[in-house]
Design brief:
This protein has 457 residues and is mostly beta strands. Helix content is 12%, strand content 50%. It folds into four domains: 42 residues; 95 residues, Immunoglobulins (Immunoglobulin-like, Sandwich); 84 residues, no CATH class; 222 residues, Jelly Rolls, CATH 2.60.120.200.
Length: 457
């Protein structure tokens, strides 16, 4: 039979191939473009966390959480769930101390009571002399060449009076024991001394021949001037063309060599009452650093450091007595020295122990305003509070406050921030949580969670 079908013409066939090719290309392009667009709008990573361990320390629960995803996560919530269905929402702990802090203090966190406890006090002496303290001070030994003498304690502090039986006379107090050890530095002393115009003609205490003194010596003598070697701070009278009183640092060696550093001078004038506050820091062998205020602890101060042959000898003796005295050559009527206070303490640093890396530790004033703050990088933190001591003195009337988290980071992100592959310790309070078996659950801000079985003892 003859074939009655006719072939498609070459032109039509070519056009059909072109149409098919273009159509397929459009479909492929549309599909590819849509896929890429869809892919680019998807998240570039995912959140995944895991609890690897936990620890209970008193009333603190620490959960160790690792970020096993590929983006940073923020843990916003921690819960405990009991088998009976009771759920406790847990928060970081805020732990604080009492209100008196001294340089040299060592404080320690008590996780059982959630309190910062004083482990070691830096305070050696703090006396404002409103009443006698016979366990600390001997008031009878330092009494040399007097016609008349007296020691008074009143609300303003210590009053030392003396009248000479010709030549120099001395009256005062000495510590019953060697109260400081210059072989065990640092040591800080602050004392407030004043020459008053009590019984002084014309009220001219600056031009009157009597002195207010504090001595450090390793020996006892009824007149500390002979208890060599010694170091002293003095408001000391000087005669000459201009009668005056000088604020001095003074030393005397075993061979009676006297060296002096003058810090301030008050010249003879009516109604003068020279007053000096000496802040002494012994933190370097054979040297003293000083800050001196004249006429009260306010305003500008004189800073510096000093060493001498006598001071070197004092250092070699180690343990020292403290003397507070009036020295004078007045024979007509008694003169009076006023000692408002003396402070002796161990350091210009405060240490807080038993903390954990990542915790925020603060020193605050009594109104809880932050004075110093740091994030712990080890099991203890130390604050250098020398600037506070110079500005305000001691004690620091305030608190130690410890947050069991990094406050800055927590406030910035709204929780604990954990980077990819990082493990972070989350410490929360379990105060008032009964002992027993629980599931601890941590939850991210985006709702990702992880549970882990724990036991609260």
């Amino acid at each position: 039979m003859r074939n009655t079908f006719k072939a498609v013409s070459p032109v039509i066939a070519l056009l059909m191939l072109i149409f098919i090719t273009v159509g397929v290309s459009v479909i492929i392009y549309a599909w590819t473009t849509g896929y890429i667009t869809s892919y680019e709008t998807q998240p570039t990573g995912f959140e995944e966390i895991k609890i690897e361990a936990y620890k209970v320390n008193g009333k603190l629960l620490t959960v160790y959480v690792r970020n096993i995803g590929d983006i940073a996560v923020t843990i916003s919530s921690v819960y405990l769930a009991s088998p009976s269905g009771i759920v406790y929402s847990l928060s970081p702990a805020v732990i604080s101390s009492g209100s008196e802090i001294w340089g040299g203090d060592i404080w320690k966190i008590d996780a059982e009571d959630l309190h910062v406890e004083l482990e070691y006090s830096g305070k050696i002496i703090y006396d404002v002399f409103t009443s006698p303290n016979p366990s600390l001070w001997d008031e009878s030994t330092i009494d040399y060449n007097n016609y008349w003498s007296a020691i008074y304690h009143d609300p303003d502090g210590l009053k030392l009076l003396s009248r000479s039986a010709n030549g120099w006379a001395v009256r005062g107090l000495i510590t019953r024991e060697k109260i400081i050890n210059l072989s065990d530095l640092p040591i800080i002393i602050e004392v407030d001394l004043q020459k008053t115009y009590y019984n002084v003609p014309g009220g001219d205490a600056a031009g009157s021949p009597f002195a207010a003194c504090m001595y450090l010596s390793s020996t006892i003598n009824a007149n500390p001037y002979y208890a060599t070697p010694w170091f002293a701070v003095k408001l000391y009278p000087r005669d000459g063309l201009n009668s005056r009183t000088e604020a001095q640092l003074v030393t005397r060696t075993n061979t009676n060599v006297i060296e002096t550093r003058i810090l301030h001078t008050w010249y003879s004038a009516p109604n003068t009452q020279p007053r000096g506050v000496f802040l002494l820091i012994f933190n370097e062998t054979n040297r003293v650093y000083y800050y001196f205020w004249h006429d009260g602890r306010m305003g500008q101060y004189v800073p510096g450091s000093w060493t001498s042959a006598g001071l070197t000898q004092v250092f070699t003796k180690g343990e020292q007595y403290i003397y507070l005295t009036i020295d004078n050559t007045v024979t007509v009527s008694s003169r009076e020295v006023h000692v408002r206070y003396i402070q002796i303490y161990k350091d210009y640093k405060v240490t807080v122990s038993n903390v954990a890396p990542g915790w925020t530790v603060e020193l605050t004033d009594n109104a809880w305003n932050t004075l110093y703050s740091t994030v712990a990088s080890a099991s203890s933190v130390t604050f250098n509070i020398l600037s506070y001591i110079i500005e305000n003195g001691m004690p620091l009337d305030g608190h130690i406050r410890v947050y069991t988290y990094n406050v800055t980071e927590f406030n910035m992100y709204g929780g604990w921030r954990i980077l990819p592959r990082e493990m972070k310790a989350l410490t929360v309070s379990i105060d008032n949580v009964p002992s027993g078996e629980y599931w601890v659950k941590v939850v991210t801000k985006n709702g990702v969670e992880y549970q882990y079985k724990v036991r609260i003892p």
